[in-house]
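Model: Ready when you are.
Researcher: Fold this.
Model:
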Amino acid sequence: MDVTMATMEWVAWYNSERLHSYCGNVPPAEYEETFHRSPAGTDLAIEDQAI
């Protein structure tokens, strides 16, 4: 296995399987998906327009 492929596999593992304490002990990919699904960003935009 060459270095490029090994690095790509490690990055994929790091972002999609490894649990990270800074994001509630979930993988970063799962945390990001949950973040984008939450309506919080929409609520903030609506509040800003009302001001």
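Researcher: Now this one.
Model:
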Amino acid sequence: MRRSMSLLLIAIFAGVTPAHALPGNQIPDDVKERCKTDYAKLCSGVMPGGGRILACFQAHKEEVSPDCRDALSKIKN
């Protein structure tokens, strides 16, 4: 179960981060951990890819937890 959650989060966040933001499109584990509740609550119905998850988080920016918002801002810059 833990492995399938990890694979799901990798697939989800692959669409969140611009390709130039991180070497090799590696999403830091802390970002996955810090945003998994927000994803489940706000964006679980959004298909990953093409920046759709990021767009979902942006559409719900008032609802995204401060911890997740902080994590996302660090990988986007």
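Researcher: Key takeaway?
Model: Residues 2-76 form one domain.
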